[in-house]
Write a structure and sequence with these properties.
The protein is an alpha+beta fold. It folds into 3 domains: 66 residues, Rossmann fold, CATH 3.40.50; 59 residues, ATP-grasp fold, A domain (Dna Ligase, domain 1, 2-Layer Sandwich); 193 residues, 2-Layer Sandwich (D-amino Acid Aminotransferase, Chain A, domain 1), CATH 3.30.470.20. The protein is 27% helix and 28% strand. Bound molecules: adenosine monophosphate (AMP). The site of adenosine monophosphate has 14 residues, from strand 5 and strand 13.
Length: 356
């Protein structure tokens, strides 16, 4: 049997492997710093849990394999400049933007995009890293070392943030999970909730947007599209050509989770719409030590990534799925007492978004 190699050995690689186990498939996440000579067979398949990587012994071996799915898509989406250019070419709405060049001035940013402008580094920014706010009232200047390496984006006064996770197979068929409502604090995802009846009317619009992209890129596997919702409009904030944190709830709330769907797609196995079981909540564990007392709450599913705990680092997540909102509410109250700040904000947000 062929092996599915995953470039990257973080939590996403581990969860891809976990999801493939019941299907009897061999999945091998590979640490990008590994010096190992990989025993790659010609009929093996290569995928990735990250959109960019340095050239190392491990990544070189994987990236030169003929069955690396979506190999050419990664560099195009990993660079915010080319990602935005793709969106513009396809006429998909994003925050107004332009590239920051060597001769760009903050005055130009303010006069074109408004008094608050978000600079984002073209590469390597995630979880709110690689962002820099230009504020006209504070006369903020563009940092010299950002010139040529960033894009400028208008500050969007969005109503809320939603994401769509979809999967596309080798023959072009695609399926989508329901829109997920997400809470970011300081640029990092803290909590998700899905599905929400009140977002249903945006589902087909979101699906059409992500479909257009996946088709244009001839993409295979799971892709996530993060959006700002302004009234009934969706602006694409960011695309991830991989399984995504805002799809983690599918482990509890869908018959086929995003990890299994990605594996099925890259392996050329049949895809089918996933059955969504009930309302799901996801709470990211960020910079907090593991507390197995969390397990004393009915319905909690803990994923602990076994990473060392550092401030701002994602070290696990908790999923819950139930049709009983009173029960979910109670579980959140219990969690609230077991988590430090700023979880109070995240828990309050989740409670406020529980349907009546
Ligand atoms: P990103 O790294 O692009 O995913 O951004 C992380 C978070 O920063 C987003 O989820 C938003 O909460 C916030 N953000 C990003 N871009 C903008 C923008 N143009 N205007 C306002 N907030 C933004």
């Amino acid at each position: 049997m062929s092996t599915i190699w995953v470039l990257g050995a973080g939590q996403l690689g581990a969860m891809l492997k976990q999801a493939a186990t019941p299907l009897g498939l061999n999945v091998r996440p590979v640490d990008i710093e590994s010096d190992e000579i990989l025993n790659l067979a010609s009929n093996d398949i290569v995928t990735a849990e990250r959109e960019e990587w340095p050239t190392t012994k491990a990544t070189e071996q994987l990236a030169t394999h003929k069955n690396f799915v979506n190999l050419n898509t990664f560099p195009q989406l990993a660079d915010r400049l080319t990602q935005k250019q793709w969106l513009d070419r396809l006429n998909l709405a994003t925050a107004p933007w332009f590239p920051i060049k060597q001769d760009s001035s903050s005055e130009h940013c303010y006069s074109t995009l408004g008094e608050r402008v978000l600079l984002k580094r073209r590469r390597g920014g995630y979880d709110g890293k690689g962002q820099f706010w230009l504020k006209q009232d504070e006369a903020t200047e563009i940092p010299e070392d950002w010139k040529g390496h960033a894009i400028a984006e208008q500050a969007i006064n969005f109503d809320e943030e939603v994401s769509l996770v979809g999967v596309r197979g080798k023959n072009g068929e695609s399926y989508f999970y329901p829109l997920t409502l997400n809470l970011h604090i300081n640029g990092i995802l803290y909590a998700s909730i899905a599905p929400l009846h009140r977002l249903n009317h945006l589902q087909s619009k979101a699906e059409a947007m992500l479909s257009k992209l996946m088709e244009a890129l001839d993409y295979v596997g799971v892709m996530a599209m993060e959006c700002f919702r302004l009234g009934d409009d969706l602006l694409i904030n960011e695309l991830a050509p991989r399984v995504h944190n805002s799809g983690h709830w599918t482990q509890a709330g869908a018959s086929v989770n995003q990890f299994e769907n990605h594996i099925r797609a890259v392996a050329g196995l049949p895809l089918a719409p996933a059955e969504v079981k009930n309302l799901s909540l996801m709470v990211n564990l960020i910079g907090v030590p593991v507390n197995y007392d969390w397990l004393s709450t009915e319905g909690i599913e803990l994923y602990w990534y076994k990473k060392s705990v550092r401030p701002g680092r994602k070290v696990g997540h908790i999923n819950m799925c139930s049709g009983d909102t009173t029960k979910l509410n109670k579980a959140l109250t219990k969690l609230d007492a077991q988590l430090p700040e700023p979880y109070q904000e995240a828990i309050k947000w989740l409670k406020a978004n529980l349907p009546e």
